[in-house]
Amino acid sequence: MTATKGLEGIVAATTSVSSIVDGVLTYRGYDIDDLAENATFEEVIYLLWYGKLPSQAELTGLRTELNASAAVPDPVIDIMRHFPERAHSMSVLRTAVSSLALYDPEADDMSKEANLRKAVRLQAQIPTLIAAYARIREGKSPISPKEGASIAENFLYMLNGTEPKPVEAKALDKALVLHADHELNASTFAGRVTVATLSDIYSGVTSAIGALKGPLHGGANEAVMNMLEEIGSAENIDTYVRSKLDRREKLMGFGHRVYKSGDPRAKHLQRMSYELGKLNGNLKWYEMSVKIEGLVTGLKGLKPNVDFYSASVYTTLGIPRDLFTPIFAISRCSGWTAHILEQYENNRIIRPRAEYVGQSDQKYIPVDFR
Ligand code: ACO
Fold first, then answer.
1. Domain count of the chain?
2. Which of 131, 162, 200, 262 gets the highest tally of CB atoms within 10 A of its CB?
């Protein structure tokens, strides 16, 4: 038995939810480029869960269900009021999502119908939790979700207390489409491993949130913005990038386990970063990002991943930096739950082996003689 570090190249599951083949990402057979240009996030949620694009009536039905499920149980809002002010919003989200299960009478109902209803509730309530926490920590009251609004509109409304501009809601909606699913990424794998023990869907999504938090995965978008701010201005880029690479340190937002010639999602986010920056009359972060990309690609051959330009997109939308990864979770909840439902449909516990590299032939010595 020989281990492959990081399971690189290992095919660990079959899925019909999404695929990456020759650098092309598809959700249920639809190219991400097509969906990014044309689909709304709610259409993508339906596509991931049900395997087909919805009719108008099906889409309206899903939107109504999501709207009706968006309010979070009061005790969950209350526990967030007791969290320390310095708590990272991903840690808060992990705990809050876990606690949702305690207030869901169907939490342990493993029927397909109940799991779909719970997927709707998770998808609807994660944005409410994030927006509520962002307000609570500023001493403001959480805002109830608004009827009839899309997930993107509602999130911005609940966060800021004002109606978002259509261009802002559309930009966030597109970012949600782009992040919705990504084959067997680390957080989806964590979610599938958890539910493959026949644990409940809340446990699966909680595990996935824990995995997404790390800076090598979803946490990279926040780390990119930290990097942009640390660099400060365009004239510092050259020195910063070269010294990072000399020290063999990672540049956040670059590289990918699967894509070696570019992440197909990055170009959409780059365009959005430019368009939003231009609209706001501030292209600083976009221009710095482009310069960093040119240098890193030139020096190291590394291409930006989905997280690189999402940092400047979210910043330009006025979203606090530590909410970038939670926004990723709003989107990826659709993919996590689609994979979890798929795992339940054809389950076998996921239990690989490990190659033992420790000591052998040890003999017990009583504690007084050690
Ligand atoms: N900056 C500098 N060098 C890098 C970077 C980077 N961002 N990414 C990879 N490399 C280098 C490695 O140092 C290594 O070089 P070496 O062969 O000379 O030692 C080589 O490229 C291969 O990199 P690995 O880390 O082995 O690649 P792996 O597939 O294990 O990791 C990962 C992929 C985690 C995405 C990595 O590229 C990385 O850490 N990137 C920065 C964090 C990031 O942006 N994560 C978000 C990924 S997208 C997502 O999850 C949503």
1. 2
2. 131
Q: Are residues 310 and 184 in the same domain?
A: no
Same domain, 294 and 165: no
Which residue lies with its CA nearest to atom 26 of ligand 1?
A: 257
Answer whether 309 contacts ligand 1 (Cβ < 6 A). Answer: no
277-297 pLDDT, tens digit each: 999 999 999 999 999 999 999
Ligand 1: does its nearest atom lie under 6 Å from the Cβ of 329?
no
The token duo for 80 is 């967030």
Tokens read off for 219: 């946490």
Q: Which residues of 222-257 are buried (b: 16+ CB within 10 A; e: fewer)?
A: bbbbebbeebeeeeebeebbeebbeeeeebbbbbbe
Ligand 1 pocket mutation pick from 256, 295, 332 by most atoms within 8 angstroms of CB: 256
Residue type for position 365 = I
The response to whether residue 216 sits with its C-beta less than 6 Å from ligand 1 reads yes
Do 125 and 259 lie in one domain? The reply is no
Residue type for position 169: A
d(CA 199, CA 191): 10
Query: Catalytic: 256?
Result: yes
Catalytic residue among 104, 181, 200, 307: 307
CB of 252 sitting under 6 A from ligand 1: yes
- The pLDDT-based confidence of 270 (bands split at 50, 70, 90) is very high
CB of 187 closer than 6 angstroms to any ligand 1 atom? no
pTM for the structure as a whole = 0.97
CA of 328 to the centre of ligand 1 (A): 19
* The ligand 1 atom nearest the CA atom of 217: 50
Residue type, 270: Q
Same domain, 156 and 300: no
* Active-site position among 217, 256, 268, 339: 256
Q: Residue range 267-273: average pLDDT?
A: 98
Residue 138: predicted pLDDT: 94
Consecutive H or E run containing 42: helix 41-50
Q: Which domain holds residue 111?
A: 17-214+323-345
- Is residue 9 one of the residues assigned to a domain? no
